[in-house]
Amino acid sequence: MHTLYDFIIHIKGIEYLLALAFIAGYLVYYEALKPKPFKTLVESGKEDIEFVKKTGYRNTLRTFGKIAAAPFIGVAYVVMLPFAFAYALATAALNGVFALAGKSATFGWRPTEAYLAGKKKDRKKKEEEK
To answer: Domain-by-domain residue ranges, the chain?
Structure first.
């Protein structure tokens, strides 16, 4: 620790760890004071084991596989962010160039517009056909 900033960060880290330790300690102390300590924890553990036996171990392993895959999915997301930014920047630049030329560069998908009964043009054609 060479600077005041390093010292403050170090002290804050210790404070957070102490706060978490005291909260966990209080929860254990509170449970220990009950007439049957950790009864709900044991009951919920038994229920979980029964559920795993009932549904099978394959479902549980699949859940653990998803948990294990989460960091890799996060890394893939972070890797893709620059490409998404470049696409958004290029689209904005393209729209700016077309705006100067007097044209619009929309791609046809407008999520705020919902034609649940069809577009007006389609309804007019259907009415004329009748």
So the answer is: 38-129
